[in-house]
Automatic annotation (TrEMBL), chain A:
Biological processes annotated in GO: ethylene-activated signaling pathway; poly(A)+ mRNA export from nucleus; post-transcriptional tethering of RNA polymerase II gene DNA at nuclear periphery; root development; transcription elongation by RNA polymerase II
Annotated PROSITE patterns: PCI (PS50250)
Molecular-function GO term, any one: double-stranded DNA binding
Short name of one Pfam family: PCI
Organism domain of life: Eukaryota
Gene Ontology cellular component list: transcription export complex 2
Domain PCI: 214-400
Protein name per the record: PCI domain-containing protein
Positions of transmembrane segments: none
Gene3D superfamilies assigned: Winged helix-like DNA-binding domain superfamily/Winged helix DNA-binding domain (1.10.10.10)
Automatic annotation (TrEMBL), chain B:
Organism listed in the record: Oryza glumipatula
Keyword field contains Nucleus: yes
GO annotations of cellular component type: nucleus; proteasome regulatory particle, lid subcomplex
Entry keyword set: Nucleus, Proteasome
InterPro entries (alphabetical): DSS1_SEM1
Subcellular location: Nucleus
Gene Ontology biological process terms, A to Z: double-strand break repair via homologous recombination; mRNA export from nucleus; proteasome assembly
PANTHER family tied to this protein: 26 PROTEASOME COMPLEX SUBUNIT DSS1, PROTEIN DELETION OF SUV3 SUPPRESSOR 1(I)-RELATED
Family from the record: Belongs to the DSS1/SEM1 family.
Pfam families: DSS1_SEM1
Name of protein: 26S proteasome complex subunit SEM1
Protein's job: Component of the 26S proteasome, a multiprotein complex involved in the ATP-dependent degradation of ubiquitinated proteins.
SMART domains linked: DSS1_SEM1
């Protein structure tokens, strides 16, 4: 296609693109500018990319026509050109130059008219960096562009997270940073941005756009899961779930992927219909094991979905449900005993628990069971004491199996 | 020599794999806002916190009862 393009036509197309960028700047049209900067979402061949191939001297054309935008336009065109040739590392490097020039301009504009364009640059630089890193990694080079994009976005964050009308755009950039940090496994870097967002005295969190609040709560909720702060994780992920646009089913699903283990750890179970609807059936056996007191089923479920649970980082949370399952099992033994012999129902021989576990194919002796029971008492999952000599667990007559009621173990 | 190639490929795959977050949140459109009326009723009704009942008539409990009874009779 490009071969048939006359120089005149190529020149015209490039000039047209440049004038649209310059016009959107001079008329403060943020939406128009944003769409002109969306490099990575462009098709491989567009009228503009064909023109850039046919007219290699495009950087000079840009610099000559618009000297006041000479830091922005030439690298922007280079990025578009390299991207259309699928040379992503080159495209990234050029785009980063253009992005820095754009940020410089953005800082000087007093009003936030170009926020949508700034956000587009923030998104594009992340997506381009991901493509560039994939290219670099497969050719055996060091994939360092995403990290570089993170550094650039920190500068953007610095320009937005200030007093004044631009602050409303800071949360979007925060969310782009989270996506980078989670991908690179450098989540500790989230801390300073979170502090800056959450300690602001002159800006109410609720005033941020809802889409950014939902994304922010999802990522900070995940961080709280890693830190085992289940109550805060519950709050944040529930916020994300409740406020998420219901049309984004995949987002609802991944919020639930983390919210479910959090809820389980505070003794709240999801209904099976919820698991079915969002295709989260890997949790179905875990839920059943809690209801039954079926330790074998819990262990089987963890083993079967081990890779999946480890990958999303919820394995340890689920493993800790074991104590709740023990509680449930002892409670069932207690109820069964009570029906048969009410007078002795509060005395549970450790031998009986050993038998029950053996039936569940869990091999433990009396001492080990005593140890587990001591742990349950310590964690306030059982109220009672040991008659150590006679190897009997004596349950409290009042509320021997306290419910978690939304508190973590 | 022959063994080196697959190992390299594996290391390569691991390197690329480092750049993954399977649980990445899908982007909302940049200019998108929606009616945020806390319509979470449906999501909230999907949870049970009062499931811990005294019912022992399910299959699992019935089998547990049988096991415990067997171990009682064995002792006598």
């Amino acid at each position: 296609m490009a071969a048939y393009l006359s120089m005149g036509e190529a020149h015209r197309r490039i000039a047209d693109y440049l004038s649209r960028v310059a016009d959107s700047v001079s008329s403060s049209d943020g939406a128009a500018l944003a769409s002109l900067l969306a490099v990575s979402s462009a098709q491989a061949t567009t009228p503009l990319s064909d023109a850039l191939s046919a007219f290699p001297d495009f950087p000079r054309l840009a610099a000559d026509r618009y000297p006041h935008l000479s830091d922005l336009l030439p690298p922007l065109l280079r990025a578009i050109h390299s991207h259309s040739l699928r040379r992503f590392a080159d495209a990234y490097s050029s785009f980063e130059k253009a992005a820095n020039a754009f940020l410089q301009e953005f800082r000087n504009w007093e009003t936030p008219w170009a926020m949508e364009a700034m956000h587009t640059v923030a998104l594009e630089i992340r997506l381009l960096a991901e493509k560039a890193d994939r290219e670099l990694a497969t050719s055996g080079k060091n994939p360092d562009k995403l990290q570089a994009a993170g550094s650039f976005l920190m500068k953007v964050f610095g320009a937005l997270a200030v007093k004044g009308p631009k602050r409303i755009g800071a949360l979007y950039v925060t969310c782009q940073l989270f996506k980078i940090y989670f991908r690179l496994g450098t989540v500790h870097l989230c801390r300073s941005v979170i502090r800056s967002i959450e300690t602001a005295r002159n800006f109410d969190f609720e005033d941020f756009p809802v889409k950014d609040k939902v994304t922010y709560m999802y990522y900070t909720g995940r961080l709280e899961v890693f830190n085992e702060n289940f109550l805060v994780a519950d709050q944040k992920l529930t916020y994300a779930l409740v406020h998420c646009n219901p049309q984004y089913g995949s987002n609802l699903r991944i919020i639930l992927k983390f919210l479910i283990p959090v809820k389980l750890s505070i003794g709240v179970l999801p209904r099976i219909t919820l698991l079915e609807r969002y295709n989260l059936l890997e949790y179905a056996d875990v839920v059943t094991s809690l209801k039954r007191g079926d330790l074998r089923l819990l262990r089987q479920a963890l083993e079967r979905h081990e890779d999946q649970f480890l990958k999303s980082g919820v394995y340890l949370v689920l493993e800790k449900l074991e104590l709740q399952v023990y509680q449930r099992l002892v409670k069932k033994i207690h109820i069964i005993q009570r029906q048969k012999e009410p007078a002795k129902a509060h005395q549970i021989k450790l031998e009986v628990v050993v038998k029950a576990l053996k039936w569940l194919e869990i091999d433990m002796d009396v001492d080990e069971v005593e140890c587990i029971m001591a742990c349950l008492i310590y964690k306030n999952l059982i109220k009672g004491y040991f008659a150590h000599k006679s190897k009997v667990l004596v349950l409290s007559k009042q509320d021997p199996f306290p419910k978690l009621n939304g508190k973590p173990v | 020599m022959a063994a080196a190639a697959p190992a390299d490929a594996k290391a390569e795959a691991a390197k690329v794999d480092l750049l993954e977050d399977d649980d990445e949140f899908e982007e909302f459109e940049i200019d998108q806002e929606w009616d945020d009326k806390e319509d979470g009723d449906e999501a909230i009704q999907q949870w049970e916190d009062d499931w811990d009942d005294d019912d022992v008539n399910d299959d699992f409990s019935l089998q547990l009862r049988k096991e415990l009874e067997e171990c009682n009779t064995q002792k006598i």
